[in-house]
Amino acid sequence: MKPPVFEYHRPDSLNEALALLGAHPDAKPLAGGQSLIPAMNFRLAAPGRLVDLNALDELAGIEETVEGGLRIGAMTRHRAVELSAAVAARAPLLAAAMPFIAHRQIRNRGTIGGSLAHADPAAELPAVVVALEAQLVLASSRGERMVPAAEFFTGLFATALEDGELITAIEIPAPPPRSGSAFLELARRHGDYALVGVTAVVILDSERRVTDARIVLFSVGEGPVRAARAEAALAGTTGDAAAREAAADAVQGDIDPSADIHASSAYRRQLASVLTRRALAAALGRAVDAAR
Amino acid sequence: MIVEGSHFFPGPRDAVWTLLLDPDVLAKTMPGTASIARVADDRYEGTMAMGIGPITAAVFDVVITITDQAAPEHYTMQIEGRGKFGFTRGKAAVTLASEGTGTSMRYQADLVVGGKIAAVGQRLLDSVSKMMLRQGLDAMTRELEHRLAGGAA
Question: What is the phi/psi pair of residue A204, to 5°?
Fold first, then answer.
């Protein structure tokens, strides 16, 4: 199918793009187009105009910050993030998640900013940036602001983005000392939407007790879901098998998954426990290695 | 698709009953409802738009017929929606019980959704209906509180 008629702009600078988005309330930014274009072709979305961001080289690229973290431009393709040595070293959780995002052809084109702005409840990246406590840099013709990832996702396909506002970059802090992370998801086939996914970051103190655990699930709610009960079950423990089991049980109280033709709500709940237990074992193992 | 659950309204059962069947309240509180009118005692007609993420254009003509009405305790709605992007039909049973000074509502809906919207958005139907229902019930609760506080309808 073909999309309805729309106006097309291809600005050469961020300022020009922001001016266009500010001036036209019916405009939609076009990043990699891996969700927007199919929706338009199905005629489920009918924006009056597109502002194509693909000429904005200033929004693409991965920088290592002096603080030991990363700044990733919003128009950086998934595949570039997946292949980056800097990402593997400084944000191993993000590197681990990348191969699970759709298929390679889609990752060649899709962008990190586009995926975050789309905020699909089954998407990997929203959960990853929340678990990493990343900051999103947002810009509009009115100026720039930083929003913590945890505050960015406000509901089903809903974000803190205001009219005329774009994500320009994602800032990921340096991995804390004595920390480890893990990413796990289960899908029927590789590249399908995950039935359930789990991201975990565990930070140990000098006694090797868990000082901070961040467990964020996806595909079990309206967006990334932070598992506060599971985190509390792990905090202050050594992360032994009993504590991991307690956290895996507690996670069922943190989520209210929907049912679809692929999996019932009860199945997703059970799967969330299993994946949480495995993710915590892997993350804790890495944190202990890092503490050596 | 089965959607069921309960909701607590902080007001007497008669007031909740009136609220739930008032077309102006429905138009104001149900997300995406552009218009809804009572065309007969037991029949409502209106249009609803679903605006979820990239889907901004799905407009449905909706007909609701109330059957099995026993004020102020329970009623059943026969729901039919039809639009360019698909259809929905089914029924929803609503039961109200006094609970202290408030009213507890139980609902159970059995809906079939078909057409393009179901083909493209199947994995999201459950989440979307839960979200729209929650937003609608929260807005109705605010409306009830507003009315009980003496505000105009």
Answer: -105, 155
